[in-house]
From TrEMBL:
Tagged with keyword Ribosomal protein: no
InterPro entries cross-referenced by the UniProt entry: E3_ubiquitin-ligase_SINA (IPR052088), Znf_RING/FYVE/PHD (IPR013083), Znf_SIAH (IPR013010)
Keywords: Metal-binding, Zinc, Zinc-finger
Highest taxon of the lineage: Eukaryota
GO cellular component terms attached to this protein's record: cytoplasm
PANTHER family cross-referenced by the UniProt entry: E3 UBIQUITIN PROTEIN LIGASE SIAH, RING-TYPE E3 UBIQUITIN TRANSFERASE
GO function term, MF aspect, one: ubiquitin protein ligase activity
Protein name: SIAH-type domain-containing protein
Length: 280
């Protein structure tokens, strides 16, 4: 393990200090991240970890499966080492007290509840907590309509004109954005659905969207993994469906003109919802 010591540090600063996690801190020291990265893909090592016969090169499990020869050995020592390195979350200054292992730092930060949320609207510099963003989007600032829902429960959303609709998961507070924009071919409204990061379920979200624009017709789209919102790519170019203009002979008795819009039936499911229920 490569350790670099700060030459200006005093002996007292280099002493080991304990913390509430029972770990020891070495003040005035830094650990070379490369020493705990896969030799093939350079990603942080996580169990199971494998090493070459001479013990100089370490590999993650996916890379090991792609290497010829398959003469690598399980490295239990390195596995213990990477699981012993605790680091601060990048959002510690926002209130996160978690200390994930070095190999789990990236996954933790993707779903950290203390990560800041950003407004996607062009020219709006709002940054805040999830609850604050919900109020910002649906309140006096933007006034976007919103719908509360539960995972795995179908709900209807009538799309009448271009615009943004906020979806709010009652299960955990996760936010989603539905954006409708005009489409030229076929004529209608192109609808996109994205989750607002940080995503509270690191395993991701899937959805099923269906609609009927005329009698005896139903179009269904299933997305295994919803894309996260990217501020630089808002509004999204990709869509999950294109809604044609409502037909006068549509399934709804009150759908007599284009102003009635088209009703989307949406089901959003967290990838680990079923496993959570099985464990309970």
């Amino acid at each position: 393990m490569e350790v670099e010591k700060n030459s200006s540090s005093t002996d007292e600063e280099a002493q080991q200090e304990g913390d509430e996690h029972g770990a020891k801190r070495l003040k005035g020291c830094t650990i070379a991240a490369k020493a705990f990265s896969c030799w093939a893909c350079s990603q942080p090592l996580r169990p199971p970890i494998f090493e070459c016969p001479v013990g100089r090169h370490f590999f993650c499990s996916p890379c090991r499966d792609q290497l010829p020869g398959n003469d690598l050995l399980r490295s239990y020592g390195m596995e213990h080492a990477v699981q012993s390195i605790l680091v601060d979350c990048r959002y510690a200054e926002h209130g996160c007290a978690e200390k994930p292992t070095y190999c789990d730092k990236s996954e933790h930060e993707k779903a950290c509840k203390n990560a800041p949320y950003f407004c996607p609207e062009t020219g709006c510099g709002f940054v805040g907590l999830r609850e604050e963003l919900l109020d910002h989007l649906t309140g006096v600032y933007h006034g976007w309509p919103s719908t509360a829902f539960h995972y795995r429960g179908a709900f209807d959303l009538r799309v009448v004109q271009p615009g943004v609709h906020v979806l709010h998961a009652m299960d955990d507070g996760q936010l989603f954005l539905v954006n409708a924009r005009r489409a030229a071919a076929p004529p209608g409204l192109a609808v996109s659905l994205v989750c607002v990061p940080p995503c509270l379920k690191p395993t991701g979200f899937g959805c099923t969207v269906s609609f009927s624009s005329f009698r005896r017709h139903r179009s269904t789209t299933t997305v295994d993994e919803l894309r996260p919102l990217r501020i630089s790519e808002w509004p999204p170019a990709e869509c999950i469906c294109v809604l044609p203009r409502a037909s006068p002979d549509g399934p709804d008795d009150d759908a007599t003109d284009d102003d009635a819009g088209v009703a989307l039936t949406i089901t959003i499911e967290a990838s680990d919802t079923e496993s959570d229920e099985d464990d309970s």
